[in-house]
Amino acid sequence: MSGQSQAGFTPTGTIATAADRRRVVFATVVGTTVEWYDFFIYATAVGLVFGQLFFAPLGENSALIGFATVGVSFLFRPLGAFLAGHYGDKLGRKTVLMWTLILMGAATALIGLLPTYETIGIMAPVLLVLLRIIQGISAGGEWGGAVLMAVEHAPRRKRGIFGASPQIGVPLGLLLASGVMALMTVIAPGDQFLAWGWRVPFLLSVVLILVGYYVRRKVEESPVFTELAARKEKARMPIAQLFRKHLLLVIIAAFVFAGNNAVGYMTTGGYIQGYATNPEGPIGLERGPVLWAVAGSAVTWLLTTLLAGWLSDRIGRRTTYVIGWVLQLVGVFTLFPLVNTGEIGLLFAGLAILTIGLGFTYGPQAALYAELFPASIRFSGVSISYAIGAIAGGAFAPTIATAIVSATGSTQAVTWYLAGMTVLGLIATLLLRDRSGIPLGPDHEEEQSVSPIYGLAKA
Prior knowledge:
With 459 residues, this protein is mostly helical. It has one domain (18-449): Growth Hormone, Chain: A (Up-down Bundle), CATH 1.20.1250. The chain has 22 helices and no strands. Helix 1 (18-55) runs antiparallel to helix 6 (123-151). The longest helix has 38 residues, at 18-55. It comes from Microbacterium maritypicum.
């Protein structure tokens, strides 16, 4: 028996109970939330304090340099994706997830202990970038494993909502990162926040990693991988097979994510936070209210992500995505007109409207990606597509936005840049057939290997 039936059987013939599935969902949500909290706390700090503490002595473009370090980590996501994909398809999804969690947490905690430029000079930003690179490697490996643990455990007709569980780790991580930072602006206001308050959220990562590690240890390996291992059908060189047979699919899938990621990184990359709180900028709002507004928008993002995952099980991944791209385009064109009013309530409204489209173009992604690739190379396929999409989309979106505003003095061109990325995501989506419900187990490799790209019979 392949895939997972509605009766709850795994590919190996054992019964996946409701309790087993709840445990997988809970572990996936907790683990990805911790991972993305660690990843986003850096971007939030770049927009608020790192420019002053680590990059200010480097010149008047310190803000631009700071946001560039957010993007640097994305360049190393493919390395994490390659490593995780290779070992995830050979050793299992669970093993890789444990290591990505530890790696991310260690890097984040060490950032919280770093001396600033004033103390150790140029070594401060150098060490900061090195730790950010480690975060990038970990993030590149995390997503694919979390996605497959959720989707490969799911009943066939509930893959969308199960797959949304790792997806909500992003808005939950943003909510947690923004909320903790906002709380620290109250506990350590003004100069105290610059002196030590910003460090606390990074050091808190140690506790969160311990929690995430404990929860993930309790979860069983993915049933699809378990059957592949039992049959000794694991791919010997999964990445080589992926690029030889499915290169075009990887590129198109990457563009699907890039359309979402470029827009999402206006907040997760720290751009809106830095733009709205810059005392020399056109708005000059206080840190605390802006962080609370971002945290509030993370809630709407979470809810729409879950809704989109659920809806994709009913109307298909492709249709849900198309609706999402239209909603995201609306959000893109309303974002800066509302943010630029300088009213905190309207800033929140702009972010909340934007996150509706973001949720609809993110919630179905886990199920969509898992259904695109054959079982034996699936971890490699979803991880590498995701990593490439992150580079093409969010890696330097805050840097690009900063450079555009610096050059033009206006956010209008930023809006058109984000609109263009949204349209790119829509085009990539329309190139793919909907494969909702396709069997995921190794018995159906031949069916899974038929290209989902319109116009191609075989991958």
